[in-house]
Amino acid sequence: MSNFLFTPTHEWASVSKDSDGTTIVTMGLTDYALELLTDLVFIDLPTVGDAVTAGEQCGEIESVKAVSGINSPATGEVVEVNEELANSLDPMTSDPFGAGWICKIKVSDEASLSALLDEATYRATCHEEH
Amino acid sequence: MRTPLYENHVRLGAKMVDFAGWDMPVQFSTIIAEHNAVRTAGGLVDVSHMGRLRFEGPGAAEFLSSTLTRRVCDMSLGQVRYSLVTNKQGFVLDDVLLGYYLNDFGQPYYMLVVNAGNHDKIVKWIKAHLTEEIAMAPGKEVIFNDMSSVWAMIAVQGPNSLELLQPLVDVDLKSMRYYRGSQCRFLHPCAQRQGGIVSRTGYTGEDGFEITLGAGIASKFWDVLVEMGKPLGVIPTGLGCRDTLRLEAGMPLYGHELSESINPIEAGLGSACYLDGYDFPGRDALKKIAQEPLTRTRVGLEILGKRPAREGCKLFVNDEEVGYVTSGSPSPTLGKNIAMGYVKTEFAEPDTALTVDIRGNKAEAKVVPLPFYKRAKK
Hints:
The complex is a heterodimer of chains A (about 130) and B (about 375). Chain A is of the alpha+beta class.
């Protein structure tokens, strides 16, 4: 999990470079978030081409009980979306950091990543919440 | 605030949330698993956060008849009635259950169970109406006591609830009819020879019982129920599934389908109002409302599409706003998205096609009869 970064609102971000050197962030929801939500019923995925801003809502996840916003961990443009999730939300709970990914963002503002937390810091905030 | 079962819930790893000022378990495992357990086997629910108000004395029946929308004077021992409390304008202050029982000394009393969120308001309302003159009227005295923290209450709901509970009480549950109850003794050493109430009531659409017992023995008794429930598939359940269960059963929830801006007639609860008997606050207003055509009506809705509608979503017919959703959720039993809401009465017929605006997304919906779910009669 060394290349995973986190938001205080329970999104994860995995940062990589594509062939022409632009920064790509793959994002999803953390195991802790999914544990809190339980009973997932619906996801409102971002759309390819959406302009997203770090810390602002880019989608919605819905459980039996409630609707929660999904916040973007980076500022940029959505370039790929995990359409599989529209059919089944199971990958999110079974493999939150892998097959349960939500979307990929082409980062336009590298500085927007500086607010992300490393895993130890993130886990500590979860602990405080609990 | 915490119920006498708070520590039990924490020990079982429940997810605790605030509900009307109470630290309550919303779920122990998942809402869907708990929901399904209640429909197929059984669930235990801590409902001690609700208010329990006791009325005694020769004037109790008359006082309650002049406070509640239902008649009380003709209730026989062991009867339970669903009623409303309305204000002078006929709006709903609370929906309540009233039971009529005997205490350990053979004296009759009434127990009024009120919603947790309305407890303070109803106690205030009762105190305002139970003036010293009324309470002390010679030969018609009324003694009112708030027993909410003295007694706890546990709901045992689901098809296996009778099998679980029968060995623990000294009354024959099989012959107890729906909306009946009785004083009872609890047949377990942990109950310390105390008695309580068992009634065949609930808020899930399943067969089930609610027991009222001393706050001091509730924690141990809950543990006994949890242990004895295991082989029967009866599990501790939270308020999360209580909400989805009652929604499937088409039962209104105060703060959603009922409020101080909704009258009982449009809520479909006209049968809980006896307008020709005792005068109670709101009776004259309700008489007038009952004679006028209804402007809006509570309906069941089925949402076509994957996204559930939620409280506050607006309903449209051809771009005309015709109503709003008061409760909405996926239905674990039916596998579709259901909701209740209010629509202009002309659109309340089953199969009426509507559009629901779910946070900017339009979805098709249709009016369906209530309840959504009815258990098969044995």
